[in-house]
Amino acid sequence: MSRSTMRSRAVPYRPRTLAPIERVPGLDYDVLDELLGYSLRRAQVAMFLAFAAATRGLDITPPRFTALVVIGANPGINQSVLGRVLGIARSGAMALADWFEARGWVERRRRSDDGRAWGLHLTRRGERLVAAMKERVRRHDRRRAAVLTAAERRELVRLLEKLAG
Q: Residue 6 domain-assigned?
């Protein structure tokens, strides 16, 4: 089998359920102990599990949560900007807005500064949902990060933002 055929048939491993990536005592992790990406992934999984616990039963993923929070904080935001925030195409942001609209959480309104454009706004129902989710996510996030002092938490966020560019 040629290498190009192998590549086209390769399917990335995706576990059905996410589990913490544990450090096994006594195991030599070799270069992994030096790789920032490995530590970031372990921390990301731990924080994602906290997020999943906070949003259990709500059918909310991190991108959906991010989008709802950003729409709430920026009433009238357009789908193109929302797509940039989420790192997805405008069409993906439009599909997400449609999904939110079908649930009664978001509505489109004509923008006052451009009558041809539409802005996204949380509905009253969406505002209540986002307020409740933000509180739950904050609580679980802080509980998981309780191993850090407030100063360490601020420094970690600062350093991660620096890495993200």
A: no
Q: Is 90 domain-assigned?
A: yes
| DSSP, residue by residue, 29-80 | -GGGGG-HHHHHHHHHHHHHHHHHHHHTTS---HHHHHHHHHHHHSTTB-HH
Provide the token pair at 36: 């920032």
pTM for this prediction: 0.82
Cβ atoms of residues 21 and 42 within 8 Å: yes
Q: From CA 140, how far away is CA 55, in angstroms rounded?
A: 10
Q: Which two tokens mark 108?
A: 């489109």
Q: What is the pLDDT of residues 89-142, one digit of tens each?
A: 999 999 999 999 999 999 999 988 887 889 999 999 999 999 999 999 999 999
> Cβ contacts of residue 79 below 8 Å, gap of 6+?
90, 93, 94, 97, 118, 120
Give the single-character DSSP code of 115: E
Domain residues for 132? 30-164
